[in-house]
Protein 1
Amino acid sequence: MITLHINGVAARVERGTTLLEAAQFMGFPIPTLCHMDGLSPYGACRLCVVEIGEGAKSRLVSACTYAAEEGLTVRTSSTRVVRTRKMVIELLLASCPQSKTIQDLAAAHDVRQQRFRQEYEDCILCGRCVRMCEEQMMAKAIGFRGRGENRSIGTPFDVKSDVCRLCGACMQVCPACELRCTYTEPEKAICGGCANLSPPCVDVNEFDDMMCYMNPCVACEIGRR
């Protein structure tokens, strides 16, 4: 067992536990997109970033792929983390603005604008479908192709796979293939239909640059009563 500190709280976990698993065990929510229970960690979307270390030596790492270390200091919702997550959500909205999952993430994290060029590429290269096909369906019918801006998902040389069973598992886990948000203005990337426009908040942290990590928010729950 090793001991680390998450948001100032000591946590004892087994060696090999990821920071995401440790935070979830302690009740600290961390948003994820490419991560999915039952599939291997991939760390593609960077939505689960957390801040480790202190002072000038602190840095951001993906919680789903970074293993817990003895004595490590972790903050799941520092100002730097929250700012980074919002930027990641904006980038995701630029590629797949009508994904309900991404729109829900935007609403939950108070993202009110999308500053990047709208691409409407749909696929966000989260790799869920590739890992599902290989690890759960045992088919390996699809995979990543190309590099950089030419990276895509499909079959080798676009030839129909002879091992694909048309099970539909790849579409079932794809954030871009799911139910869509339907806004009426194409240039408006954020529908805002699920947003709490005036959330109350309480100071629950001893750190100056920590945001509220409570889910559901205690102040929001009190406000509904």
Note: The beta strands are 2-6, 9-13, 49-52, 59-62, 73-75, 143-145, 152-154.
Protein 2
Amino acid sequence: MDTIERLIERSKRNRQRVILPEGDDRRILEAAKRLHDEGIAHPILVGEREKLENEAQAAGFSLTGIESVFPAPGPILDAYAALYVQGRPRANERMAMRFLSRPLHYAAMAVKAGAADLLVAGAKQPTARIIEAGLMTVGMAKGIATPSSFFLMIPQRRPEDDENPDARGSRALIFADCAVNIDPDPEQLADIAIASAASAKQLLDAPPRVAMLSFSTKGSARHARVEKVQKAVELARKRAPGLAIDGEMQVDTALVADVARIKLEKEDLGDERAVAGRANILVFPDLDAGNIGYKLSERLGGMRAIGPFLQGFAKPVCDLSRGASVDDIVAATAISGLMGQGSIQESD
């Protein structure tokens, strides 16, 4: 069983309520059908019931047993509007009702209100719109001010893995941030590191070990960009003293034990919480590095890139690629549901 299959099986043990605001997209309807029939999650579609059912029927399946909601005037919308105004004193209920009449924002407020466990959207809307909806409703996790993203990077199966099945699973990695923050400052990098550790804790088989990447390893070069990463490590350690985090370091030092032994002092390698040579979370210094890094790993390194997933929100908010397949939507929902079963603070 590969990594994605294992994560999907785990998600079935605690079916999360996922709200899907893009019910007018056939891929979403087909994904909802699979999520329901395979017991992966409890889907809640947003849309007019008759239109949803007609679209599903045209695709050759039924929505029987699948819940749907619609942002029509009534007690639920009134309650959501009151909740929105409560968090934004300058807003009024008329403004809130107009805001929440949009399926995306209505769905996000349903997560805020506890009527759903996670939001999955983005099949038809850009990342910026998904982040905006999350910020205006769900909000950020305690202690985190920066929304960010990560990819789950999974090695492709090799013949030698049959002889050592544990080796391949231990090499799954988290890459962050590869899709949202262009040039994060030290505080934002620390946010990304802590949020990524919380994500990894729910998804990876090994304890989180965060490497803060740079073109320098432990002062081998001097530059303002190196100092940025050094400061981020310092901030993250103060905020999450129990987190295994180290840097600045080059990517080969982070991943390859033999290289780490050559480049680092013994005290950086001997502790059971040492990161060098054993990192499973790579935090890139900027979006250039992160985007290039994951695509090189995918195209030349043969890794499968799953994501990007948003992180740092108080509850899971998943941003789909607009080119996402039904399989992608199902996998993203399962993985995002698992992320909702932990918290940022658990990484401290």
Note: The domain at 3-139 is CATH 3.40.50.10950 (Rossmann fold).
Protein 3
Amino acid sequence: MRPLEWSKSLANMLLAAIVANGFQPFDPFTFALAFIAVGPCLWGGLYALNDFTDRHKDTLHPVKRRRPIPSGQISPRAALGLAAFLIALAFYLAVYILRNPLFAVCLLGMLVNQVLYTVKPFEFKKRPVVDLVSGSAVNPVLRFYSGWVLFGEGANPAFNAPWLLLAFLVGIQFGGYTLYKLGSKKVEKTVGYKSSIVLFGEQEIKLIAHFAIFVGVVSYFLALYHGILPLKFVWLGIGSLLLTPVYWKTLADPKHMDVKNMYRVLYLHAIGFILGFLALAFWA
């Protein structure tokens, strides 16, 4: 279920909920239920489904072969049953507890996108261009809107978030995911994938990733300039930029990144960003 990965949903949903509610305190119980539906339930189930479909390929990966299914700790059938239960529970919370149809649409969008990415005969993860778009451009938007529609426009929420915030989230997450994927090039080539990292040159992929991250950073500061975020949030942007040396080796040579250490750094950064955003929104 990859609990640490839920931090992406938490960060995206929190940012959306805070901005949508005009930087005023919102109902924490509603938000907590929504996060449980998105993070532990929906994405916990989708990660289990992904591990089920990738179980044979993961045995060839130096890191992923330690996951519960390829390592033999959990049977494939048990993992598939867990995935189905968690995904069903996510929609139960959305439809019968939160009673928010737009929130349910966000869940459905993420489910459909991940099925297209993971499951035969679609398997977008094996196809060039759509593998990167499906894997890291669609989901950040839907995670963000999962928080936005909870509190946006009072009783009449809509899919009307500022595009600069979406560009910030998509740029950073698309760029990071693309660099991470370069570390799997050897495995994906061995199993016959025709993915972006297999078909396109490493330098081109790195250039795309770096450009996406640049767009994300610029979008954040433009959101400050246009008043979408209060100017005091500039300190979060500056603080994140000061961490650039920590990521420099990964940015320059992603194929040889220390995946375990980089995950640790990214999660600590994400947690720090969340706490900083909360502090500036409600207490600073």
Note: Residues 194 and 234 are 41 Å apart (CA to CA).
